[in-house]
Design brief:
It comes from Marinicella sediminis. Pfam families: ThiI, ThiI_fer, THUMP. InterPro entries: Rossmann-like_a/b/a_fold, ThiI_AANH, ThiI_fer, ThiI_N, THUMP_dom, THUMP_ThiI, tRNA_STrfase, tRNA_sulfurtransferase_ThiI. Its main location: cytoplasm. This protein is an alpha/beta fold. It has 2 domains: 179 residues, VC0802-like; 221 residues, HUPs (Rossmann fold, 3-Layer(aba) Sandwich), CATH 3.40.50.620. The protein is 39% helix and 22% strand. The strands form 2 sheets. Strands 1, 2, 3, 4, 5, 6, 7 and 8 form an 8-stranded mixed sheet that branches. Strands 13-12-9-10-11-14-15 form a 7-stranded mixed sheet, with helices on both faces. Strand 6 and strand 7 form a beta hairpin. Helix 8 runs antiparallel to helix 15 and helix 9 crosses helix 10. The radius of gyration is 27 Å and the shape is elongated.
């Protein structure tokens, strides 16, 4: 028996002349993920779907791979299928031998039986030269299920268990329920962004949403202390990036200290310390973006959630740099964000105790500010702004993961 993983995409099918570029990127991303799982399986693009050639690998191995692949952006749904090659089994000849199909359907029906549940068949015949039409084959296979298992109740529209048979000129695929993917666009198809990453729920979800729109996502985190390189892998922020990289692929995290700015700010006790700090973070991030050729900065801002996320303070932060600042969570409520965090396997990690840098900078932040006032405060009270930025960037550390595996941790000034 040969196996395949069949991969369907939705949004990519709507693309025009550049559709093949998006499909090529998704195929490459799937191949890289497959390799990271330790498999040397070929990934093929055929018409409106992709196939991962599992060959004779054990079914449980292929099913584990399906679960791992389901988080890759760009995939609508996928399934582990039993594959019958047309050339070998001659199904599409004048008198096709359908017994192997009936045997597999019977086996799958026995394995998946659930008392009191309903089933249905979804049979498609894309090659109209096949002599048995879809309706007749559905009836025949339904009889096979009834004769060889305890399935009895059929619900065509809302079945608990589906059995799929897809007959094409290349062969026949037989499988059970589909595993839903995240949809969207494949990573690396729309450009690179840099995300301001904190230890909470919001910014990791914001980063994932951008990745699901095809972006390469890197991260920058402002830390209250200097970390020993040997201990950095155990740091909460680093572990969040590692988890995200399992679906995003190669991902870079830049850890920078905010102590230089904090010390300069403490000397003056300015009332607008929080928004001044956020403008500083944007400028440092902008400098990093120039190095890595990122086109936009991403934050986990959610309108009205905290003092720094009022429209006035968002505007003041925007005016600190010319690079676009994207806020994919701007209209989300907290329940929606936590739901995404759970789905990404980040909830427990994000619940771990952590001192957010914005909370440390200011306990009573102003909710309204004007960029013109902030510019004057920066000019009058922070005359060594460029030096503070340079000192901060000089102490930056880079951490790189590739599908959950650590590539390196190093100080960027080495």
């Amino acid at each position: 028996m040969k196996y395949r993983i069949i991969v369907h995409y939705a949004e990519l099918a709507l693309k025009g002349k550049n559709r093949k570029d998006f499909v090529k990127r998704l195929r490459k991303n799937i191949r890289r993920k497959v390799v990271s799982l330790g498999h040397d399986w070929e990934v093929k693009s055929i018409h409106d779907r992709l196939f991962v050639e599992v060959g004779t690998a054990p079914a449980e191995v292929a099913e584990q791979a399906v679960e791992s692949l389901s988080g890759i952006p760009g995939i609508a749904w996928l399934s582990h299928v039993h594959w019958f090659d047309e050339q070998k089994y001659r199904f599409l000849r004048a008198q096709p031998d359908m017994q192997p199909i009936h045997d597999i359907i019977s086996e799958l029906a026995q394995k998946t039986y659930q008392p009191g549940k309903t089933f249905a068949l979804d049979v498609k015949r894309s090659d109209k030269n096949f002599r048995i039409n879809s309706n007749d084959l559905t009836i025949q296979l339904a009889q096979t299920i009834a004769d060889n298992s305890n399935w009895r109740d059929v619900d065509i529209n809302h079945a608990d268990q589906y059995f799929y048979v897809n007959i094409s000129s290349r062969g026949t695929a037989v499988h059970t329920n589909k595993i839903h993917g995240t949809g969207g666009l494949p990573v690396s198809s729309t450009g690179r962004v840099l995300t301001l990453l904190s230890g909470g729920f919001d910014s990791p979800v914001a980063a994932w949403l951008m990745a699901n729109r095809g972006c390469n996502v890197d991260f920058i985190h402002f830390s209250a202390s200097h970390h020993n390189l040997k201990d950095l892998e155990a740091y909460k922020i680093t572990r969040i990036v590692r988890q995200l990289s399992t679906v995003l692929g190669r991902t870079r995290l830049y850890v920078v200290p905010y102590t230089h700015f904090d010390m300069a700010l403490m000397e003056h006790g300015l009332a607008y310390d929080l928004i001044l700090f956020r403008r500083f973070m944007a400028r440092v991030a902008d400098a990093v973006m120039q190095r890595i050729e990122a086109k936009a900065l991403v934050t986990g801002d959610n309108l009205g959630q905290v003092a720094s996320q009022t429209l006035e303070n968002i505007d003041s932060m925007n005016r600190a740099i010319q690079t676009p600042i994207l806020r994919p969570l701007i209209t989300y409520n907290k329940e929606q964000i936590i739901e995404h965090s759970n789905r990404l396997g980040l909830f427990d990690m994000c619940c771990e105790p952590y001192k957010d840098c914005c909370a440390l900078i200011s306990k009573n932040p102003r909710t309204k500010s004007k960029a013109s006032l902030l510019e004057k405060l920066e000019e009058n009270h922070l005359p060594d702004y460029d030096e503070i930025m340079n000192d901060t960037l000089a102490e930056m550390t880079e951490v790189v993961y590739n599908f959950g595996e650590l590539e390196h941790i190093k100080a960027t000034n080495e």
